Structure formats: structure tokens, C-alpha cells
């Protein structure tokens, strides 16, 4: 995992690391997040698995399995550190533990790239995923933006990105009640009780100004807002002794207030026609209407905090919820209520899309991330990579596709005994 270098206390850096390892995810699902349309509500989602074989996976023979194997090795770096008896999240009926994946990780490390296809065929059994009777679900995209920034505030860089406050407490409710799996709250402790944290409007108006939380300064509040949407970004420092250095700002926490999409009020107010709604359209409107932009952004009470990480592998993305570095076009975010991170998935979009304008996407991906908008068993967010081109791809992805989960043999045996 990249090394945190922000100048915070050791205890805070530890808390941030724990938050990342606990799977506090990137905020993803671009167009859906902006319009609040798409996935089946979690309470209506029922995962159904049906065994298939690799010969039934359209496009399997043509895929570059070595790329998927490289992405899997990133997951295995994390999984090998987890005790074998540690339960993994996902459908509790499967009862997956880290030990279920340790043997395939051992084999993955020894497998030559030219043998990657044979490795996956021998180590896993494919199971098609349905949501009840639905074979397809919403597939969206996300990316890691790259922008200019500074370590000091100036007229050119007036908008701050904040580190996680010392008193922010984030709680995974599923750690306390199985019925609350996948739900989180956050706040601060006051007189022994967890109370709501400051919302976006309060933070923008100065609620945290005396805390010294500023990590980096960006050209505009709109840049900072879109950084929060992605949950991670690269910043090219423009001045001072570090000029030219590329750093990564990675998700470190959230204030606990629910996410409110700003796309819908922009449609309702007549600012953007519904058929033209996109990330680019929202950003253009905000930039062209500076007097109203902050009020619209404040409609989203959610606020994200960051930590600074070293960019050790520029070809890879940020650490996802699993803490594995994301691989462009080979990593997806899934719903951890249904799926364990570190599993391979056969990902299919049956028609041309932003990520593949010449035809369908059919490729082996690794589940390495999750997110607030990723809900349901047939629901994934496709990591498109870094920078403007990746953003163009991610911002346009909103298609229905299918998922096939690859299970290690021991887990597959358990799956066969379940009445789905």
C-alpha cells in the first residue's frame, strides 16, 4: 500500500490506514451519482448463482488473461497478509474466508503470464450472477482525475482539500448487527454520544477552519467537489520546492451525511435538459454560473476528507477498498454485501460503450473496490484509469451488463449445495 506522507499525528495516520483497510470506498458511479437513478435498492436485491463453464463465456478465448492475472496479484498482496480464518465480506451463505483464496494466490504468484488462461480455468469455477430473475444490471465507470495544485493558498489556488479531522468517527454498522451489513454512519463523540458531524455548508462556511486540515490547494471549489466525487485524484504540484511532483490524494473519510445528487435539481430548475445530463454538462454549468455554483454544490451535504499518498506505480490507480492498487480496465467496484473483494469476475457489456466504442466489452476483471452507489449483486463500476481521457470514458458509461463470478473450488462446492 502506498505510504501516507501527510503531516498528521501517528494516531491519525493509523486511523486513516484502518479506514482504508476497512474498505471505506471511493465514491463512484458517475452519472448515477449525479441523477440518483439506476441500481435496484439493496433491500430488493437477491443474489442467485448458477454454475456455468468457461466455454459459455462469450469472448473468453480472446481475452488477455495475463492482464487479469497481474491485477489479481495486486489483490493477493493484500490477501496473503490476512489470517486464513478471517471472514471475507460477501454473501454469508458462501462463508468465504481469506484461506479460501490463499491457495490460488500461491499459484498465481508461480504462474507465468503465458499460462494465465490455464491458471484461471484450473483454479476457479464460473457462476453466472443474477439479481432474482434479472440477468443484467447497471454498469457505470469511474476514474482517477489529474489536476494542478499547490501546497500553499494563493489567488491561483484558493480551494482547499481537507485531511480527516481527529474527532471524526466512522462506524460500520454491519460490525454490530448482521442485518445492518453495508450500512455506515459517521459523526463525532460529544458527552459520550455519537453526534452528527458538520455538513458541507457548515464546512464551506468555516466550521473546520481552525483545525489546520488543509492538505492541498486547488484552482477552484468545483475541482475540489469533483475530486470528492471520484474519491481519489493525482495532483501535479505547480510551485515551491516540490514543483513538478505528482502526488495522490486518497479517500480518508466522510462526514456521515447522505449523498445528494446535484444533477436532478439542475434538471428540475431547467438549467440542464435531461437528455443532455452528464458529468461534463454539470461541470460546465457550475463553471459558467459561479454565483450559484456553491449553493448548488451545498445541496450535497456529504463531504469527503483525504490523505496524501506517494504515487509508487504511475501505471496503476489508487488503492481501492481492498487496499490493492486498481488496474485500469481490469478493476471493478462491487457491492460487498454480495461479493468478496479479491475475486475475479467475467464482465460483459453486450454493445459498444464509451470504454469500447468498436464493440462489446468482454473481459476478466478483479473485484477490488466498492462504493456508496454500488448496490446489488449485478452492479459494477468499471475503473477506466487516470486522467482526462479516462474521465471521458467513465463519465459516459451507464449501460446494462452481466457478471459471472469465478469461485475457488472449495467455495464452488459450497455454492452447489445452496438453494439459490
TrEMBL record:
InterPro entries the record matches: 3D_dom, MltA, MltA_B, RlpA-like_sf
EC number: 4.2.2.n1
Pfam families: 3D, MltA
Reactions catalysed according to its record: Exolytic cleavage of the (1->4)-beta-glycosidic linkage between N-acetylmuramic acid (MurNAc) and N-acetylglucosamine (GlcNAc) residues in peptidoglycan, from either the reducing or the non-reducing ends of the peptidoglycan chains, with concomitant formation of a 1,6-anhydrobond in the MurNAc residue
Domain Lytic transglycosylase MltA: 146-307
GO CC terms: outer membrane
PANTHER family for this protein: MEMBRANE-BOUND LYTIC MUREIN TRANSGLYCOSYLASE A (PTHR30124:SF0)
Protein name (Swiss-Prot/TrEMBL): peptidoglycan lytic exotransglycosylase
Amino acid at each position: 500500500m502506498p505510504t501516507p506522507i501527510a503531516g498528521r499525528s501517528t494516531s491519525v495516520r493509523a486511523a486513516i490506514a484502518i479506514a482504508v483497510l476497512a474498505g471505506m470506498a471511493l465514491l463512484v458511479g458517475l452519472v448515477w451519482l449525479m441523477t440518483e437513478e439506476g441500481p435496484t435498492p439493496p433491500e430488493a436485491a437477491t443474489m442467485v448463482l448458477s454454475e456455468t463453464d468457461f466455454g459459455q463465456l462469450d469472448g473468453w478465448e480472446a481475452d488477455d488473461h495475463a492482464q487479469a492475472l497481474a491485477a489479481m496479484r495486486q489483490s493477493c498482496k493484500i490477501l496473503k497478509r490476512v489470517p486464513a480464518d478471517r471472514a471475507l465480506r460477501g454473501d454469508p451463505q458462501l462463508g468465504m474466508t481469506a484461506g479460501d483464496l490463499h491457495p490460488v494466490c500461491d499459484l498465481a504468484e508461480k504462474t507465468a503470464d503465458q499460462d494465465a488462461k490455464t491458471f484461471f480455468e484450473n483454479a476457479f469455477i464460473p457462476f453466472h450472477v443474477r439479481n432474482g430473475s434479472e440477468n443484467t444490471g447497471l454498469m457505470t465507470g469511474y476514474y482517477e482525475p489529474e489536476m494542478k495544485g499547490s501546497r500553499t493558498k494563493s489567488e491561483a489556488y484558493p480551494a482547499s482539500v481537507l485531511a480527516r479531522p481527529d474527532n471524526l468517527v466512522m462506524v460500520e454498522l454491519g460490525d454490530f448487527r448482521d442485518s445492518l451489513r453495508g450500512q455506515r454512519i459517521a459523526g463525532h463523540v460529544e458527552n459520550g454520544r455519537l453526534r452528527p458531524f458538520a455538513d458541507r455548508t457548515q464546512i464551506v462556511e468555516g466550521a473546520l477552519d481552525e483545525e489546520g486540515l488543509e492538505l492541498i490547494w486547488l484552482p477552484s471549489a468545483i475541482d475540489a467537489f469533483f475530486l470528492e466525487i471520484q474519491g481519489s485524484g493525482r495532483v501535479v504540484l505547480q510551485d515551491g520546492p516540490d514543483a513538478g511532483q505528482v502526488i495522490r490524494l486518497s479517500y480518508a473519510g466522510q462526514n456521515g451525511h447522505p449523498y445528494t445528487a446535484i444533477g436532478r435539481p439542475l434538471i428540475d430548475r431547467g438549467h440542464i435538459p435531461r437528455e443532455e445530463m452528464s458529468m461534463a454538462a454539470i461541470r460546465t454549468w457550475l463553471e459558467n454560473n459561479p454565483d450559484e455554483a456553491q449553493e448548488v454544490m451545498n445541496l450535497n451535504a456529504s463531504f469527503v476528507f483525504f490523505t496524501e499518498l506517494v504515487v509508487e506505480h504511475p501505471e496503476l490507480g489508487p488503492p481501492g477498498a481492498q487496499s490493492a492498487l486498481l488496474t485500469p480496465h481490469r478493476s471493478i467496484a462491487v457491492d460487498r454485501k454480495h461479493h468478496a473483494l479479491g475475486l475475479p469476475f467475467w464482465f460483459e457489456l453486450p454493445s459498444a460503450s464509451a470504454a469500447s466504442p468498436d464493440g462489446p466489452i468482454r473481459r476478466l476483471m478483479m473485484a477490488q473496490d466498492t462504493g456508496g452507489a454500488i448496490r446489488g449483486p449485478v452492479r459494477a463500476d468499471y475503473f477506466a484509469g487516470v486522467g482526462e481521457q479516462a474521465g471521458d470514458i467513465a463519465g459516459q458509461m451507464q449501460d446494462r451488463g452481466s457478471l459471472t463470478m469465478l469461485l475457488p473450488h472449495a467455495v464452488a462446492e459450497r455454492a452447489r449445495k445452496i438453494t439459490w
